[in-house]
Amino acid sequence: MAGSGSLPTGFGELEVLAVGTVLLVEALAGLCLNSLTILSFCKTPELRTPTHLLVLSLALADTGISLNALVAATSSLLRRWPYGSDGCQAHGFQGFIASLASICSSAAIAWGRYHHYCTRRQLAWNTAISLVICVWLSSVFWAALPLLGWGHYDYEPLGTCCTLDYSRVDRNFTSFLFTMAFFNFFLPLFITLVSYRLMEQKLRKTGHLQVPALIAKTVPTINAINYALGSEMVHRGIWQCLSLQRSELDRAR
């Protein structure tokens, strides 16, 4: 880790500045876009549906990723990690929770869309709430394991943010990495691909083909654009929030 006022070993001034700038732009963009999604859900009654609850979960997870990136950006621009060893563990823990929740929320959204379009039934509130609770409890569980000794958080090569220590090759970390990857990457990816594939086959017969983004599930900006800001209903909700217009339900009351 870089000392106070010194560059991280093996990195130049321009490299550190570039990393910090990119992280700062991504963090601010993710915070702004996902905050609009969260605000529109809270302020617009029409958006408070079980399906949009899954999108809200994704927006919250990606907001967590953006906050984590903001801390990393600040440290990169300072050219050092100012929060100590405990801060490193907390930073890695929080970032890992948000990342896992983002991936699993994307899979939950894929399943929810499959359920809606292929069964022609609305997603029930108890089902959506159960999915969200499972996503976040699972994310906290897997992110806590490195703090308990299975896996390990450490500084990234730049020395200005923290994540899983992928440089370790011992049996402890290898077993954690493969087990975690199966349940939190390959399984959600399988659910996402199968759900969209079945939905594609169903909608192709009706002539209403939808092509979702299947890549970059942990990028907050892309998720916000794809799942939230790409929705016409969310567009209306955001416009109502920004322009202080009342929704139809509010006017009816």
TrEMBL record:
Q: Which Pfam families match?
A: 7tm_1
Q: Which Gene Ontology MF annotations are present?
A: G protein-coupled receptor activity; photoreceptor activity
Superkingdom is Eukaryota
Subcellular location, principal = membrane
Q: What residues does the G-protein coupled receptors family 1 profile domain cover?
A: 33-253
Q: Which GO terms describe its cellular component?
A: membrane
Keywords tagged on the record: Chromophore, Disulfide bond, G-protein coupled receptor, Membrane, Photoreceptor protein, Receptor, Retinal protein, Sensory transduction, Transducer, Transmembrane, Transmembrane helix, Vision
Against Gene3D superfamilies, the record matches this protein to: Rhodopsin 7-helix transmembrane proteins
| The keyword Transferase is assigned to this record | no
One biological-process term from Gene Ontology? phototransduction
Q: How does it sit in the membrane?
A: Multi-pass membrane protein
Q: Sum up the protein's function in the record's words.
A: Receptor for all-trans- and 11-cis-retinal. Binds preferentially to the former and may catalyze the isomerization of the chromophore by a retinochrome-like mechanism.
PANTHER family listed in its UniProt record? OPSIN
Q: What is this protein called?
A: RPE-retinal G protein-coupled receptor
Lineage per the UniProt record: Eukaryota, Metazoa, Chordata, Craniata, Vertebrata
**Gene this chain is encoded by:** RGR
